[in-house]
Design brief:
Protein name: DUF4046 domain-containing protein
Number of strands: 0
Pfam families: DUF4046
InterPro entries: DUF4046
Distance between the termini: 38 Å
Strand content: under 5%
Length: about 50
Amino acid sequence: MQAKAVQIEEIYQEILDGKRSRFPPNTWKEDSNRELAKRVTKYLIETILK
């Protein structure tokens, strides 16, 4: 059985909904090219602020 990977956008939405208080530890540690940060920003602009 394989565990489902949680998307960064889902985690961000949970933070906005109040289900989480912050991102999990080391979320940004491996994001050297800022790909996760770009995805979260895109999600904010295209989905939340539309």
